[in-house]
Specification:
The chain is of the alpha/beta class and 228 residues long. The protein is built from ten helices and nine strands. The radius of gyration is 16 Å and the shape is globular.
Amino acid sequence: MSFVDKDQYNNVATEYLTLADVPQTKLEDELVKLGLGDCTGFKVLDLGGGSGGHARHALEAGAASVDVVDVSEQMLQVGKDIEAKTGYDVVMVIWAFDHARTMQALEGMWQNVSYYLKPGGRFVGVRVSNPRGKGAQSGDYGARFENVEEIADGVKYDCVVLTKPPFSFEATSMETSYTGSFEIPQKFGLSDFEYVQAEDTEIVKKDPAYWKTFLEDPHFRAFTAKKM
């Protein structure tokens, strides 16, 4: 089952660490922190957690432990990568949905979210919401999407991160995901979906004029849910 080419992330691993200086990464961090809220004593699972930046946010919010599974095919078989345990209080998926190359892969991700999340547990996610939006195309917020191309059930594109020097990687977004549908996660028992509002972050409050384009047509959204 194809998910994502892990080698492309190995190839840009050093550059990826410079993302912290990108404006949209700073916004993303604040959105995730708001979505996490108080995690005192929680067990947290970060699927596709990369270098662990958001895992550190969870620890800062009081989490007792955080398990991180990096972006790879193994995310679809996460039980092989982490200790066999269920009942996480929080499961995070930050951007990884936008590397599912098929609907089958996307459903596999959501199935894992549901499996590892305890009843009543909280989900926190970030996913692309408009790959062709003005903010995504302009690069005004530190990254842009190029070569957007239709594929079965979605689009693929190059995400160019405007660090110094810039780097890029290929991403894929299924239409059901970037159009804001929650049909798949609902099928796996998630409910109470809510968007984390960019207007509530300090970075936007400090310079709303700069973020005007994003606020009018956000090219990514953070959201939360609960397992029924």
